[in-house]
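RECORD TYPE: inverse folding
INPUT: structure tokens
STRUCTURE:
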């Protein structure tokens, strides 16, 4: 039985601040996968009311922006918005590229009830959605994974995908060979045997599942490297100015997206070839949530190349934030302040 917002949030409640370490303590990666699947299903069946990401370009590195995403799941007591600064250059300084918060409101009176670390939520929900897509689209026996990129999302993707497929070997490439080597050593120590490669092609040709988790302005994954039957999660290019995939990679693949309105405004690797006629619209099968709901197909056969084009869905953030808020309240965690 669902609770009304007034039953969860007392009329005199303040604003509950939930920091990153608390978020990490409250949510397992399996929790995040389950919540991501629920949000993706609701995205496609209309239960989640939401809109595309709104961004304000900022001076600095390619992709630097202020990002706002908002959603109101009909079956959850709280709605809200995630506001982040995106600074791709931060990785080189040892800082998070995505910083900000998720602000939650209760539905009955519209009061703000919580502010949750947005970097932590993004860090959990992004690989969780990739894991959901991988479970839906990759071959069940796929056991080798390639990571293009070696940042925080690369590490989190390995952990998440290993929960849905029997990953026995990880291959990694990044622009800095020493950092790729250090990343491989760290992942191997965690129990994921990982090999660094001198080229992206070498890493990809050895894998059955490929994840791109970079902020590249120009393609880092080429279609001619992809073997039949490979599944690809293209994750890093969340705005139209960034592009991780070359045209051949897109044209060789059957494509699923997380949220179609977002894909058609932010995934330049999809909407540009579609507009110029080089990409058959029928190659874009639909939303991954629709596949989960049985409204569109999943993988067709053993040799099909499948591509999940991830942009980030506002409903994922708010679904996860509802879970975190309620669990923090139940356990007496977080710091409550008055506005």
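DESIGNED SEQUENCE:
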């Amino acid at each position: 039985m669902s609770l009304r917002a007034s039953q969860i949030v007392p009329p005199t409640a303040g604003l509950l601040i939930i920091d990153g370490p608390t978020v990490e303590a409250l949510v397992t990666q399996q929790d995040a996968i389950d919540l991501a699947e629920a949000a993706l299903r609701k995205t496609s069946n209309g239960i989640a009311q939401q809109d595309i990401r709104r961004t304000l370009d900022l001076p600095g590195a390619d992709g630097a922006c202020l990002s706002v995403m908002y959603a109101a799941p009909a079956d959850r007591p709280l709605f809200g918005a995630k506001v982040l600064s995106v600074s791709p250059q931060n990785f080189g300084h040892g800082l998070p590229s995505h910083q900000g918060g998720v602000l939650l409101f209760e539905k009955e009176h519209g009061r703000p009830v919580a502010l949750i670390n947005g970097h932590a939520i993004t860090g959990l929900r992004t690989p969780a959605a990739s894991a959901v897509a991988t479970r839906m689209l990759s071959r069940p026996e796929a056991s080798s994974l390639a990571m293009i990129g070696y940042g925080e999302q690369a590490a989190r993707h390995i952990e998440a995908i290993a929960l849905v497929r029997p990953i026995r070997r990880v291959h990694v490439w990044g622009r800095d060979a020493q950092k790729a080597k250090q990343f491989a050593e760290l992942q191997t120590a965690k129990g994921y045997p990982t090999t660094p490669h001198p080229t992206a092609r070498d890493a990809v040709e050895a894998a059955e599942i490929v994840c791109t988790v970079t902020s590249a302005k120009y393609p880092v994954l080429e279609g001619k490297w992809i073997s039949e039957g490979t599944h690809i999660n293209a994750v890093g290019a969340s705005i139209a100015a960034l592009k991780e995939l070359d045209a051949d990679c897109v044209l060789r693949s059957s494509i699923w997206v997380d949220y179609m309105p977002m894909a058609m405004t932010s995934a330049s690797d999809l909407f540009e070839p579609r507009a110029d006629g080089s990409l058959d619209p029928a190659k874009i099968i639909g939303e991954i949530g629709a596949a989960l709901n049985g409204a569109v197909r999943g993988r067709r056969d053993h040799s099909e190349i499948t591509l999940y084009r991830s942009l980030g869905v506002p409903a994922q953030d708010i679904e996860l934030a509802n879970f975190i808020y309620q669990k923090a309240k139940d356990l007496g965690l977080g710091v409550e302040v008055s506005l």
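NOTES: The longest helix spans residues 118-137.
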